[in-house]
Amino acid sequence: MIRLAVGAAVLALPAAAMAKDKDEPVIIPARYVPLEEIIVIGGGSLKPTDANAIQSLAIVRDLEPGLGTRIENRLRDEGGLAQFRRSDGRSAHPTSQGVTLRGLGGNASSRALITLDGVPQADPFGGWVAWSAYDAIRLGGIIVARGGGSGVDGPGALAGTIGLYSEITEGSEASAAYGSRDSVDLSASAGTRLGNGWLAVDGRYGRSDGFIPVAESQRGAADRAAPYEQGGLGARLRFDAGDHGRIEASLRGFSDRRDRGIDFTTSKVDGVDASLRFLHQPGAGVQWLALAYLQLREFDSGFASVAADRDGVAPALRQRVPATGLGARVELRPAVGGAFPLRLGVDWRRTAGRTQEDYMFAGLVPGRHRIAGGSSDTVGLFAEWTSGDAHEGLLWTASGRIDRWWLGAGYRFETQIAGPVISDAHFAAREGWEASGRAGLRWTAGPVAIRAAVYRGWRLPTLNELYRPFRVGPDATAANALLRPERLWGGEAGVDLGLGSAHIGFTIFRNRLENAIANVTLGTGPGNFPGVGFVAAGATYSQRQNLDAIDSAGVEFSADAPLGPLRLRASYALTDARVDASGAASVLDGLRPAQVAKHSGSVSLSSRGDGPFGGFATLRYVGRQNEDDLGLQQLDDALTLEAGLSWRVLDAVSIEARGENLFNALVATAISSAGIVERATPRTLWVGARLSF
């Protein structure tokens, strides 16, 4: 089977890596692969560039689609990588799926930069991640680069960069699986030559009756199973343009339907993504890339009010959030001494969206309507220089960028339905400058490499944080149109030891995230509060605010080694994160941020032979963490086991079985102010078949 990387910025490949015949796919030895530019699939592994090797990296492979696999769950194997909720994209609310690293959590908006073939992936309005969107594309691998300040990838890389990379596979592959609770998972991929290029089409569909999210001892008549139905379809095209050029185009769409296990809580997410890029990559002179992309999102969700005895439920809010993301990028790589150590470029991203909400229900009829939203633009200049291809001795790299940002005039309009206007707020446009960057070095002597880096990053508040108030059950949180950009200063030092095909890595880090945006509790009901209205007795009133800072320090450990016919992989992070707060948020000073665990990690064993039988087993652990900013509610630690077996019956046919959360552990993912515990996926068993041609 031939696999060809596609969709990445291939700008600086050594001449030895280029195909002699243009009609043949380029298969590049792993040692030549620039990580931020291309994934080499022909070698079966991903390797970083020398510049990226100065960072603490994790390379996620084994991303075969189908049989119930979830990308967001595979990422949970990386110690210190946290999503805002412990539940995945089958049961979590879509707005709770932000991702971060190194204890910089406490917010559903992502503090890590997520890209797909170099295109930003966070929701244009809210900054969360629609993980089900990747059902519509075949991924070849994921690179998790820890630490902020990645100047060349774009703004927003506070905690690190998570790069997803697509691939084209020549031939066809399909899988079908059936699982617990009448779950179905179907996937198919096909890749073929098309003239002087390649075409790939990928699709996936999944559905399930779902499980009851509320813990069994707390359920009432209002609680039921939470079904989901998700699917997507994508097409990618690559063809040569001239002697040294290439054009790549991608179009995909996805649809996601799920609810929260009670009436009136259905959520819908529909999206379409498109990108077009041109690459010019001669062996000498100037290599360059031009990229343009579009994101369209339509999010619709309902929220409900549940009686104290959980025997009754009523609608509380219905919202619709259309959003658009646009962007472009141009990058140059001039030849210097026969190599391409310098990257220069400019990028632009625009987001626009609004929330349209009906609330204050009397029975099934809403009494009030709200519209709130705005826009943002960021234009940045970036540069990166890497000293050379130093496999022994000293290597250094420096990157930086300067960004100009604009927040367009925001608004929040509230009215009685068929009645008078309640409020008509307008928020002045704002603009500013931000700088970010990273400098690092690595010294290598034989199997030992010592590395260190310092960095600065920043993140603009999302439109959701600025303008949209929200409720979770009876608890209400107000928006804040005056939020300032978050700014991160940090550093790390580490050592890597390579012994043959085994690798051990150890990193220490320290970060300070200034102006950290958090939901700060300011009062409890009953009563009317600014920006949200009435809050019931015992429920909390919060507002998004800039804290003075979040200070985070810790250690990270990784190991990857063959053990006979098996491969052992381990990842662990110890993170000590504390809030630095004053003023209205002073009660939070010294507390651990919400949704940040001190300990997290995984241990995995997998087969690595070419025989007919294969399998894997992965233990994941996440420590105790605060549910709320005050630490009054805590989520217990959790240990889960996932395992699978496969049997290749024929060259093209495999039978597989897999189990999630085999211990059936109660993985608490949320606790309401009334003490109601919501759980993540319970034990789930899958059996299915995979066909490859």
Keywords:
disordered N terminus, 22-stranded antiparallel β-barrel, 2 helices, 1% helix, 58% strand, 693 residues, mainly beta, Maltoporin, Chain A
The fraction of residues assigned to DSSP E strands is over 45%
Helix content: under 10%
Mean pLDDT: 86
Secondary structural class: mainly beta
What would CATH call the homologous superfamily? TonB-dependent receptor, beta-barrel domain
Shape: globular
CATH architecture: Beta Barrel
Count all strands and give the number: 42
Described by strand count, sense and barrel closure, the largest sheet is: 22 strands, antiparallel, barrel
Please write the CATH class name. Answer: Mainly Beta
Query: Could you tell me how far the N terminus lies from the C terminus, measured between alpha carbons in angstroms?
Result: 9 Å
Look up the CATH topology: Maltoporin, Chain A
Number of domains: 1
Low-pLDDT ranges: 1-50
- The gyration radius over C-alpha positions equals 25 Å
**How many helices in DSSP terms?**
2
Characterise this structure.
By secondary structure, this protein is mainly β. It has one domain (3-692): Beta Barrel (Maltoporin, Chain A), CATH 2.40.170.20. The chain contains two helices and 42 strands. The strands form seven sheets. The chain has a 22-stranded antiparallel beta barrel. Strands 1, 2, 5, 6, 7 and 8 form a six-stranded mixed beta sheet that branches. It is globular.
